[in-house]
Specification:
Spore Coat Polysaccharide Biosynthesis Protein SpsA, Chain A; seven-stranded mixed sheet; 11 helices; 7 strands; elongated
């Protein structure tokens, strides 16, 4: 059986003091994990301090060390790095990290254990029990604004709590290779939260493990109040707003589809109740089933098109699942209308119907997003160790 290839991807800019020790540390970890094939990819932004030259020298004697030079910008570097790791180095797992040792590479064995346990994205986190950072007051404030206010609450990226770290392990097959990296228009630190969001759309199963974010071993931090910092803040605001609008658009489409279903349900209800003299509870349930057929087709090919089913072998099963989850809404309609007619009379059956539809709308959106067009991370987003 071939070994899984793990590409440790290090993003660097002026890290000549750290790059050698980090490559050596990764090699030592790889020796202990003989079931994997370890490869190191250094993605350097043409560091003027000679970081790239050091890597070239190391690569002459270590055949599993590679250098990729990119324009400056963390987002640009990581996007090109992920593409290179998949397309050129044939990675099975990509572990991105910095090389200043603030994120401890000794967590890699634990990260790979979690991958073996079935998780697709493993994130060392400062925000779970046992995690910690060494931030200054200014850095704590900026991290809170970016990580928590903008990305967690505003953008709604809640698959994990720590959205700003570069250290993460990602499965390639069916996860990273589903992300359209060419369409990611980000340049700075916002790449971190953007990747989590994009990975969540693939159905990735996430887990966070506690990590202590320590001090740099050597060199100077790239984070500070400067022009690049301001650009990063503006890009974060722009990107988190884009994600919020994208997610809001999905709910808007859901409401439109629901409106069409409401019309179908109402017409069938009125015809069967007024012309056919059916009991309103039975008539509304029949109309609801007609609406379900319409809702399934429109939701699959429009509302949840990023997760749509195209296989004709899978569609019948998913339609059955859709019907089963929608039974809750039908049951809500039946019970509310039956009780209304029983206790307050038939004359107000349309009022009971409209009220029951409102309750059913809430039920359906919850069930569609967590069961039918679910992503696996919904059930694993908050898992911790």
């Amino acid at each position: 059986m071939d070994k899984l290839r793990v590409v440790n991807m290090l993003s660097t800019y002026n890290e000549k003091e750290n790059i050698g020790p980090m490559i050596q540390t990764l090699a030592e970890i790889g020796e202990k994990l003989s079931q994997y094939e370890f490869v190191t990819l250094v993605v350097d932004s043409h560091s003027p301090d000679g970081t790239g030259d050091i890597v070239r020298e190391i690569a002459r004697t270590q055949k599993n060390v590679f250098l990729l030079e990119t324009p400056r910008g963390l987002g640009i570097s990581l996007i090109k790095g992920y593409q290179h790791a998949m397309n050129e180095l044939k990675a099975d797992i990509v572990i991105s990290n910095d090389c200043d040792f603030q994120w401890d590479p000794q967590l890699i064995p634990t990260m790979l254990e979690k991958m073996e346990a079935g998780y697709d994205v493993v994130v060392p986190s400062r925000h779970v029990k046992g995690g910690k950072d060494n931030f200054t007051s200014f850095r704590k404030l900026t991290h809170f604004v970016s990580n928590t206010l903008l990305n967690h609450y505003w953008a709604g990226i809640r698959e994990i709590k720590d959205l700003a770290g570069n250290f993460k392990a990602i499965r390639v097959k069916g996860i990273l290779d589903k992300v359209d990296l060419d369409k990611l228009n980000v340049r700075g630190f916002v790449i971190q939260s953007t990747m989590i969001y994009e990975l969540s759309k693939t159905g990735a199963k996430f887990i966070e493990i506690p990590a202590i974010f320590g001090a740099r071993r050597a060199g100077e931090t790239k984070v500070g109040f400067n022009t690049q910092f301001i650009k990063d803040v503006l890009e974060t605001i722009k990107n988190s707003t884009r994600i919020r609008l994208e997610r809001s658009a999905q709910f808007f489409r859901f409401c439109v589809v629901g409106g069409i279903g409401f019309v179908i349900n109402t017409v069938v209800l009125r015809v069967l109740a007024e012309v056919g003299h059916w009991h309103p509870a039975v008539a509304s349930s029949t109309g609801a089933e007609m609406a379900i057929i319409s809702n399934f087709m429109l939701n699959n090919f429009w509302t949840f098109k990023s997760s749509k089913f195209t296989s004709w072998k899978k569609i019948p099963f998913k339609f059955l699942q859709f019907n089963m989850t929608s039974l809750g809404a039908i049951l809500i309609q039946f019970v509310v209308i039956w009780l209304g007619v029983h206790f307050f009379g038939r004359a107000l059956y349309m009022f009971y119907y409209v009220f029951s539809v409102g309750l059913g709308l809430i039920w359906n959106y919850f069930m569609y997003t967590t069961v039918v067009w679910k992503t696996k991370n919904k059930s694993a987003a908050q898992l911790q160790v």
